[in-house]
Amino acid sequence: MTPKLSLHRLACFITPHGLGHAARAAGVLAALQKRQPDIKLTLFTTAAADFFTASGCRNVTIHPESLDIGFVQQSALVKDIPETVRRLDAFLPFPDALIRRLAAEVHKARCTALICDIAPLGIAVARAAGIPSILIENFTWDNLYEHYAPHYPRLQVHADLLRQWFSAADFHIQTEPVCHRVAAAFATTSPVTRPPKTGPAAIRRELGVAPGRKMVLITMGGVSERTPLLAHMARRDDLVFVVAWGAPERRVRGNVICLPLRSAFYHPDLVQAADAVIGKLGYSTLAEVHGSGVPFGYISRRNYPEMPGLTAFVERHVAGLELHDADLGAGVEPDFIDRLLALSRRPPAPVNGADEIAAYMCGDAGVPPKIRPPLQNSSC
Fold first, then answer.
1. Weakest mean pLDDT among 17-21, 67-71, 87-91, 157-161
2. Which of 45, 95, 302, 335 is deepest in the core (most CB within 10 A)?
3. Would you state the pLDDT for residue 300?
4. What integer is the mean pLDDT of 339-351?
């Protein structure tokens, strides 16, 4: 079954929980515009317009809206569950006035369909506006909240409410690595990523990485945060470490290059140019690493419900070495980077899930949904 959608004017509601969802949405929207260049985009998000235009999106109008709670983060690796509960209590159920206001904005923009990643408020707004909703996810908040509900019972109340909204989407697309598989989903696609734009040699020249030196990218998923890994960097004259989003402005100290969040460097280009990537195991970084084939030193977080699906995917499809979050406090093994760099780079992923979703949404003749059998041990 392929959807019958009018895509001339698309709304997109994106959770503010990390840049990964904005990156996935940008990849999908750019792929759609490659097929239908006249699509106009009305985006409800906290991400800046230039994030999307740098990703290949055009005809973009931004409505700066914080649409979702997700999880409140104390840091890139630590959630604040009590504060998350407090904010959810103040936000849910969705106020009728908020739904009406946003539906009026969607109607004013003459949107004909609405993509949700993964802010369920978008599904409520689409219903109020009388247009179809398309949910794109590899997890939804209800399943993650349930994991913590035994210790925070209010989260079960919020999970039950949000599950009703997620199940109300008109079309449901899951993207690998999937955390919780939904039998009613229309399609399951390959990982979604924004494709690189500039070749590795040009990126390394612009960064000032001399030929013959290996480059290691450190990335924490859009959060500026110092890690104990930095203590190991200055002693490696044979390597150059590039820290994505690690400083308010570009800074070079010895063999460490720190870049700001609003850097001129496009993150998928940095991943492709690196000899290895070290970072938080999150969706967009994993999708970019998988797409490029670069070895990945991934920082997993024990007892986090999204980890089993992500780590199972890494073990099957990525050249990777695991670091636990606790290892960062105890001290990373001195030879970790050498072992990571010794891994062979894998061939780039043959398919980008963004192109699969675009083909599916455009209803291309002869292009069925990309249904994949579940990965072993990939469900949370």
1. 17-21
2. 45
3. 86
4. 95
- Digit-coded pLDDT (tens) for 211-268: 989 999 999 765 444 555 656 666 778 899 999 976 788 988 888 898 988 888 999 9
Distance CA 174, CA 188 (A): 5
- Tell me the whole-structure pTM to 2 decimals: 0.91
Do 250 and 270 contact (CB within 8 A), yes or no?
Answer: no
Residue 356: Cβ within 10 Å count: 22
Tell me how far apart the alpha carbons of residues 271 and 285 are, in angstroms, rounded to a whole number.
Answer: 8
Residue ranges of domains in the chain, CATH in brackets: 9-192+352-361 (3.40.50.2000), 200-341 (3.40.50.2000)
Cα 145 from Cα 152, distance rounded (Å): 9
3-class SS letters over the chain: CCCCCCCCEEEEEECCCCCHHHHHHHHHHHHHHHHCCCCEEEEEECCCHHHHHHCCCCCEEEEECCCCCCCCECCCCCECHHHHHHHHHHHCCCCHHHHHHHHHHHHHCCCCEEEEEECCHHHHHHHHHCCCEEEEECCCHHHHHHHHCCCCCHHHHHHHHHHHHHHCCCEEEEECCCCCCCCCCCEEECCCCCCCCCCHHHHHHHHCCCCCCEEEEEECCCCCCCCCCHHHHCCCCCEEEEECCCCCCCEEECCEEECCCCCCCCHHHHHHHCCEEEEECCHHHHHHHHHHCCCEEEEECCCCCCHHHHHHHHHHHCCEEEEEHHHHHHCCCCCHHHHHHCCCCCCCCCCCHHHHHHHHHCCCCCCCCCCCCCCCCCCC
Is pLDDT larger for residue 260 or for residue 111?
111
* pLDDT at res. 362: 87
pLDDT band at 304 (very low <50, low <70, confident <90, very high): confident
Per-residue pLDDT averaged across 105-122, rounded?
98
Cβ atoms within 10 Å, residue 35: 14
What one-letter code names the amino acid at 282? G
